[in-house]
Amino acid sequence: MATSVTLTICFDAPFWVGVVEIAEAGEVRATRHVFGGEPTDAELYQFLLRHGSALLARAQANPPVSAETRHQGRHNPKRAVRLAAREAARTARGQRSTASQEALRREFEQRKASAAAEAKQRRQDEAERKYALKRAKRKRRKRGH
């Protein structure tokens, strides 16, 4: 049960993004960090020293996605062209092509749902607070002060 951790830095217009993938037991967990400008090697090293454990913890907290097992043997060249075209069409339709991208999508949806729940709770709390103020004001008017 070997665990491999991979950090990939890529340009996702207009920012540089780091994707951390943790692969273990046929499952992949991933998270991403937006760097902004292109990080130098020294900046990347300092970032990993300061925030590496938090980044790994964030990746571990995400739901796992099963890794696709791919055939490593030789393919017929025509078959390889067909598979590449099918993969290109799949990504053009908006479907994710790798397990790490699927894990990132699930992480995004999870954060989106939790943010929506927190916003709803804040709105309810604010409405209750306003109602309590309105009730207190009405009570003061009834007392004749």
Automatic annotation (TrEMBL):
Basic and acidic residues: compositionally biased ranges: 103-112, 119-131
Region spans: Disordered: 60-145
Bias kind Basic residues: ranges: 72-81, 132-145
Pfam families referenced in this protein's UniProt entry, alphabetically: DUF2992
InterPro entries: UCP021328 (IPR016787)
Name of this chain's protein: DUF2992 domain-containing protein
Organism: Streptomyces nanshensis
